[in-house]
Amino acid sequence: MFFKLLKRFYDTTYNLNYQYAKVIIVIGSLFVMPKDFCMADRRPNVEVIDTDILDKKEDLGQLDRTKLNIQMSEPEIRFLSYLIRRYKPKKIVEIGVAAGGSSVVILNAIKNIPNAKLYSIDLCEKMGNDHSQRIGFVVDRHFSHLNKSNWRLYTGNITAKFIDEIGKDIDFVFIDTEHRNPGEILDFLQILPYLKRGAIVVFHDVSCHLLYYPKNKTQWTNCALLNAIKGRKIIPRKDSWEGVELIFPNIGAIKIENNQEKFAFDYFNMLTLPWYYFPDEEQIKTLKDFFRKHYDDFCCNIFERAINEYRQLLSKKYQEENSILHRFIMFFRAIINRIVHFSF
Ligand SMILES: C[S@@+](CC[C@H](N)C(=O)[O-])C[C@H]1O[C@@H](n2cnc3c(N)ncnc32)[C@H](O)[C@@H]1O
Predict the structure, then answer these.
(1) Which residues form the pocket of ligand 1, taking CB atoms under 6 Å from any ligand atom?
(2) How far is the CA of 206 from the centre of ligand 1 (A)?
(3) What ranges do the domains of the chain cover?
(4) pLDDT tens, 33-84?
(5) Assigned CATH class of 48-275
(6) By alpha-carbon position, which residue is closest to atom 5 of ligand 1?
(7) CA of 100 to the centre of ligand 1 (A)
(8) pLDDT tens-digit map of 248-299
(9) Within 13 Å of residue 307, how many CA atoms lie on the same side as its CB?
């Protein structure tokens, strides 16, 4: 509104040829514009949600937060719950379950949505830090009041192994797995062909690389995906971790644009970015078959090339060759060679 008035005034003065007025207006607008440009909620492609307000609206009362064993902050829990209540999805997929805290939050949010169903997937069968506990154990142990007939848990493999059974028309996905490349890039590519038009995709740990920096500095995958996936972005205004306000929220969602198949190249090309771990060969084989079934040769070739490149770069031999000790030995050997060379 202000800019429209400014422009109208500028146009009028232009006609009257008031040169001084024009200069003053242009300089004045320089002071106004930067602030306006920085306000994310005025951009048409980003919606900023006030999680403080959600506190009162979200029905989280029955969830004993101390028993959730969840790796999400209070504003992130409220944000996830809010999105489900707002979009009322019928078919939800969660990738990355661990103890099951986020599954509880989702099951609680869908309890009043008729025919809504949650499908949760985890690569492991047991908890990484405690092998006596099964993945998703908190759901049965502490939240027996939730309806479990609308929950299906798949463990022990990657999404591609279960997704045909889950089927198409998925309208809500929550992804929270490795946070390092190729992690969630591969997870997203496995779910993409099964998404409904305009589905909501939520990523946790989108600013994880800044938390406990530099320990987490390789964990920027979800930040990159939140930026790269085409669609309207939804983020909370504020977030905090262990009582400290975060500079950037650690959760974000995308209401995906229609015709996502047009963007397959953009997502596959992300696999050329550095990989920080190499999936096991069984997973690679499953992924190759899956991608061949759902994507064109060009995209599959990008995956093949990325595998070949990073298999070599991440191999033990390569790492050994690049270790400081190895370089030191090579340097020392070169000096001895020189000495031997000059002595004869
Ligand atoms: C950060 S935890 C999930 C935390 C959970 N969403 C919560 O908020 O409580 C990550 C989980 O993802 C699982 N995971 C890692 N890679 C995976 C993959 N490619 N597919 C499915 N699960 C995976 C791990 O076994 C681990 O249990």
Answers:
(1) 70-72, 95-99, 101-102, 121-124, 158-159, 176-178, 187
(2) 14
(3) 2-38, 48-275
(4) 544 555 555 667 999 998 776 655 556 766 888 889 998 998 999 999 999 9
(5) alpha beta
(6) 97
(7) 10
(8) 999 999 999 999 989 999 999 999 999 999 999 999 999 999 999 999 999 9
(9) 16
